[in-house]
Design goal:
Number of strands: 20
CATH superfamily of the largest domain: Immunoglobulins
Strand content: over 45%
Radius of gyration: 25 Å
CATH class of the largest domain: Mainly Beta
CATH topology of the largest domain: Immunoglobulin-like
Number of helices: 1
Order of helices and strands: EHEEEEEEEEEEEEEEEEEEE
Distance between the termini: 67 Å
Largest sheet: 6 strands, mixed
Length: 261
């Protein structure tokens, strides 16, 4: 966390994000406190292969003198923010609201999309996972606090999961074959592609139940496909379920009903 004393008021988001001007030899005052950061309502940011993902993020700051503004941006990398491999910055003007004489919250619109070039607000496959959130607050006595690792948020490749149980209908005691496929957004090619080597749960619920029970686990093929066989016992729904990981969100296939006669 860095604290800077400013010589002049800073009026733009860009100037604040880069840091306020410092006074040579000036004694640094105690900086404002960053009390809360909320990105995308506290949920992971899931980005598809082509559509622009829009979300908002806010920072709350507090200082005895009052807070003029707060702000944030997201960055990806294992080093410092200055060495970031990717960055997601605000895509519009902030809205600031003072909840008291000491505390202010500023909210920013953001947007991000898949693009293999890796420019600001664009992501490639290698950037999926946990991102740092750099947050700052600027007080009325012209002191800025910056925390480049205040929190983290996951930016994930959107996932899809399908299921198909056959034959329908089927006689009791006969075999039901359940196929499906797990795919996820390929940010480099702007398509969905099969997700290989993932452990998927095959689940079942009876016609009268709302709860799924796991029958077994199945591993996706090199192209993301799934295949399993079970014995028909009673009318019910079959689905595949993926628990997700740091780069890809959890997803359930819609249940496929099988009439057992």
């Amino acid at each position: 966390m860095r604290i800077r004393a400013a010589a002049v008021a800073v009026t733009t988001c860009a100037a604040l994000a880069l840091g306020a001007l410092t006074v040579p030899g000036a004694q640094a005052a105690e900086g404002p406190t960053i009390t809360k950061v909320v990105v995308n309502g506290g949920k992971n940011i899931v980005v598809g292969p082509s559509a622009v993902k829009k979300f908002t993020a806010s920072v709350t700051g507090s200082d005895p003198s009052g807070v003029i503004s707060t702000g944030l941006y997201l960055w990806y990398g294992s080093g410092s923010a200055a060495e970031a491999k990717g960055q997601i910055s605000p895509a519009g003007e902030r809205t600031c609201t003072a909840s008291s004489t000491t505390t202010t919250t500023c909210t920013y619109p953001f947007q991000v999309m898949a693009n293999s070039r890796g420019y600001t607000n664009e992501v490639s496959n290698s950037l999926a996972g946990s991102w740092h959130v750099s947050a700052w607050a600027f007080s009325k006595n012209r002191v800025q606090t910056v925390d480049d690792t205040f929190t983290t948020v996951k930016v994930q490749r959107a996932s899809r999961l399908t299921v198909n149980a056959t034959p329908e209908p089927v006689k009791k005691g006969k075999t039901i074959t359940i196929t499906g496929a797990l795919s996820r957004a390929n940010w480099n090619t702007h398509t969905y592609a099969g997700y290989a080597g993932q452990t998927i749960k095959l689940q079942y619920r009876t016609k009268s139940s709302l709860t799924y029970t796991t029958l077994r686990t199945v591993t996706t093929s090199s192209t993301g496909t799934l295949r399993a066989a079970v014995t028909a016992t009673a009318d019910g729904y079959y689905r595949y379920s993926f628990a997700g990981n740091s780069t890809t969100p959890a997803v359930n296939a819609p249940g496929d009903f099988v009439d057992v006669q």
